[in-house]
Design goal:
Layout lengths: L1 H16 L8 E7 L8 E4 L10 E4 L16 H12 L12 E6 L5 E5 L9 E8 L1 H8 L17 E6 L4 E6 L3 E3 L6 E3 L4 H4 L3 E6 L4 E6 L3 E3 L6 E3 L4 H4 L4 E5 L4 E5 L4 E3 L6 E3 L5 H4 L4 E5 L4 E5 L4 E3 L6 E3 L5 H4 L3 E6 L4 E6 L3 E3 L6 E3 L14 E4 L4 E3 L6 E6 L6 E7 L5 E7 L2 E5 L6 E7 L6 E8 L11 E4 L4
Parallel strand pairs: 27-29
Antiparallel strand pairs: 1-2, 1-3, 4-5, 4-6, 7-8, 9-10, 11-12, 13-14, 15-16, 17-18, 19-20, 21-22, 23-24, 25-26, 28-35, 29-34, 30-33, 30-35, 31-32, 31-34
Helix pairs in contact: 1-2
C-alpha cells in the first residue's frame, strides 16, 4: 500500500511543478483533541478547525512533501493520500493514549471511553487507562470502537485486523493465501509438490489452514518421506510364487520370480526351475544359473568351447601345432576364445600358410608375427629386440609437413621398410650402416608403419639396430 502512496505522490508533485490545473481538496491532520485512526486524517477544501472544538493542520506539517496540502488536488487523489496516512506509525505521536476501557459491574459488558478524564458512568469500573485506540479495542473486544478499522481498504483476498507487534490495524491475507511479490494482492499459497516430492500433489488442510503435499492415489510415502512410491503389491495373490521387486526405471514395485523359479509359458505363475540335464541336449555342457534371465542355462565347462554350430562343447586343450604346421607353436587368442598356431621366433608363414619358414631372406614384403606388432611414438628411439621381423605403427598426429627418420644397423645387416598411407616410402636395403631420410606427409594420413627385417643376409650372429622417427616440423 505504501508503494501505491509513493506513486501518487510523484504524479501529483509532477503535476504541480508543471502548473497543470488541480482541484482544491487538501489533506488535513487532527492534532487536538485526541482521536482514533478513522478521523485523525481527513479531506476538506478548507481547514476543518471549528472554534476551538478541534484543531487541524495540513498533513505536510507531520508528513513533509505530502501532496494535496500546499496545492489542492482532486477529491479521489486526496482521499487515496488520506487513507494511506491513516495507517502510518506517526499516529502514536499524536493523540494516541487518550482512551480507557470500562466494565459494567452487573453485565460485565465493556466500553471504550475517550478523554483523559472521561467516565462510562455509574455502574462501571475502570479496567485500564492511558491506552491507544487499538489497545483499547483489543482489551474491550469491541472492533471499530475508535480506530475505524472497518474503514481501512485492504487488497483483494485480505482483511483488516489489529497487529499486536506493530500496535496498529493492518491488512492480513485470508487463510491459505499469501502476499504476491509487490504486496498488492493475496494469492493461493500452493506448493509445487510434484517437483518437491515425486508422485505427490497439493491439497488443502483444514487443520493448519494451508496447502500441504500428499501422495497421489495408489502411492505412499517412502521411509524418509522424500518421495511417494507405489504400495507394495501382494504378488503371490496374482501370480503364484512371485514376489514384489522395486524397479528403479519405472519407480514402482513389479512382480517377478524369485531365484530358482521362472515364469510359465502363459506368464501367470512362477514355476520351479529344475536344473536341466544339459549334457543330454548339448554334449559336454553343464547347467549354470543366469541371474539376468533368472533361470538355468547350458554352458561349456572350463577347458571346453562351443563348436561352430553351438550343438556341443569341444575340448579346448592346447593343440600340438608343430604336428600340423612345421616350426609353429600354440598360443591362446582372446578374440576367438581358442588356441591358435603361430610361427616360432625367427620364422614366418610361407605363402600357402602350411608351414613356418625362416624369416631371414631379404624379403620385399616381410611377414610379421602378431606378437611382434607394436605401437610407437615419434621422437622415441627404438632398439633391436628379437631376431625376427618387428613392426612399429606410429601416429605422428599430423598429415601435413615433413619429418626425419634416422637409423643404425651396425655390422650385422638389417633391412628397414617404411610405409605411409599403404605405400612404401623408404627401403634401406640390406645394410649394416647408419643414415637418415626426410619423409613428407601425404596430407591424407598421419600414420607410418616401420618394419625391421633383421639378419637379411642370413648371418648367424645376433643382430643389433635402432631407429628414431621424428615428429613433424
Amino acid at each position: 500500500m505504501h508503494k501505491k502512496i509513493v506513486t501518487i505522490l510523484c504524479l501529483l508533485l509532477t503535476a504541480a511543478l508543471f502548473g497543470q490545473p488541480t482541484d482544491q481538496w487538501k489533506v488535513w491532520v487532527k492534532t487536538s483533541p485526541c482521536s482514533g485512526r478513522h478521523d485523525w486524517v481527513s479531506v476538506a477544501k478548507e481547514n476543518p478547525t471549528s472554534y476551538g472544538l478541534s484543531y487541524y493542520e495540513l498533513a505536510n506539517v507531520i508528513f513533509p512533501q505530502t501532496p494535496c496540502t500546499t496545492f489542492g488536488c482532486s477529491f479521489s487523489d486526496a482521499t487515496s493520500i488520506a487513507n494511506g496516512l491513516k495507517v502510518m506509525d506517526e499516529f502514536f505521536n499524536y493523540c494516541c493514549r487518550d482512551y480507557s476501557v470500562w466494565e459494567n459491574t452487573q453485565t460485565r459488558a465493556r466500553s471504550v471511553v475517550v478523554g483523559k478524564f472521561g467516565t462510562a458512568g455509574l455502574g462501571w469500573i475502570l479496567l485500564k487507562t492511558d491506552l491507544c485506540c487499538e489497545e483499547a479495542e483489543a482489551l474491550s473486544g469491541i472492533s471499530n470502537a475508535c480506530s475505524g478499522a472497518g474503514n481501512l481498504q485492504c487488497w483483494p483476498g485480505s482483511y483488516a485486523a489489529w497487529n499486536a507487534q506493530t500496535q496498529r490495524t493492518e491488512c492480513f491475507c485470508n487463510p491459505g493465501l499469501v502476499w504476491n511479490a509487490d504486496k498488492t494482492a493475496c494469492i493461493p499459497n500452493v506448493p509445487d509438490c510434484p517437483n518437491i516430492y515425486a508422485n505427490s500433489e497439493a491439497l488443502w488442510d483444514n487443520v493448519s489452514n494451508q496447502y500441504l503435499c500428499y501422495c497421489k492415489s495408489g502411492y505412499v510415502w517412502n521411509e524418509t518421506k522424500t518421495a511417494c512410491i507405489t504400495t507394495l503389491p501382494d504378488c503371490n495373490l496374482y501370480y503364484k510364487n512371485s514376489v514384489a521387486v522395486w524397479d528403479a526405471a519405472t519407480m514402482q514395485y513389479l512382480c517377478n520370480c524369485p531365484q530358482g523359479y521362472v515364469w510359465n509359458q502363459a506368464r501367470t505363475e512362477c514355476v520351479l526351475n529344475q536344473i536341466p540335464d544339459c549334457n543330454l541336449y548339448y554334449k559336454n555342457s553343464i547347467a549354470v544359473w543366469d541371474a539376468a534371465t533368472m533361470q538355468y542355462l547350458c554352458n561349456c565347462p572350463q577347458g571346453y568351447v562351443w563348436n561352430q554350430t553351438r550343438t556341443e562343447c569341444i575340448s579346448n586343450q592346447l593343440p600340438d601345432c608343430n604336428s600340423f604346421y612345421k616350426n609353429s607353436y600354440a598360443a591362446w587368442d582372446n578374440g576367438s576364445n581358442q588356441y591358435l598356431c603361430y610361427c616360432n621366433t625367427g620364422y614366418v608363414w610361407n605363402a600357402a600358410r602350411t608351414e613356418c619358414i625362416p624369416s631371414g631372406g631379404n624379403q620385399d614384403e616381410p611377414v610379421v608375427n602378431p606378437q611382434q606388432k607394436k605401437n610407437g611414438e615419434c621422437n622415441i628411439q627404438y632398439k633391436s629386440g628379437a631376431n625376427e621381423a618387428e613392426q612399429y605403427t606410429i601416429d605422428v598426429k599430423r598429415n601435413l609437413g615433413s619429418l626425419n627418420f634416422a637409423y643404425e644397423t651396425y655390422s650385422v645387416k638389417d633391412r628397414i621398410h617404411i610405409y605411409h598411407g599403404g605405400i612404401k616410402v623408404f627401403d634401406s636395403g640390406c645394410v649394416g650402416a647408419n643414415g637418415s631420410q626426410t619423409l613428407n606427409l601425404n596430407g591424407a594420413s598421419s600414420i607410418f608403419t616401420i618394419i625391421v627385417d633383421p639378419k637379411c643376409d642370413q648371418d648367424q650372429s645376433d643382430t643389433s639396430w635402432n631407429f628414431t622417427l621424428g615428429c613433424p616440423n
